[in-house]
Design a protein that fits this description.
149 residues, 12 strands, Cyclophilin, 2 helices, two-stranded antiparallel sheet, mainly beta
Amino acid sequence: MMLGLVFKSIACNTDNKTTSEEAFTVEATDTIKLTAGSTTFTATLANNSSAKALKELLTKGDIQIKMSDYGNMEKVGTLGTTLPRNDEHITTAPGDLILYQGNAFVIYYAPNTWTFTRLGKINNVSSDELIAALGKGDITVTLSLSAIQ
């Protein structure tokens, strides 16, 4: 049985920009695991062709991404392939997973406003927890499919 999850906006926006909490519907099976060092997070994927392409890529095996700090707000690394883009003007929040320019995977731990594609959001994580897990400098993050317990 598949359960649907709906994330609803807690911020009202009148300028055609979406926020990190913008509503999107996903199936309960649309989750992935992110492992950074000894910490594993679960993330819920967005409902768009970019996230679906990432999930399809993960059916072929785990993806390891060497990620680096950028701008004191994110970790970024190259996916090694290009995914479809669904760019929109977004303000990020801690835990947002973003596709930048079709081939860069980004984990945000602080806010940023720019035009890029939402891939998903790490569940129940704070900025401090992300910074502690991701650390300073380069880190390899492994993406894998997650089974719902």
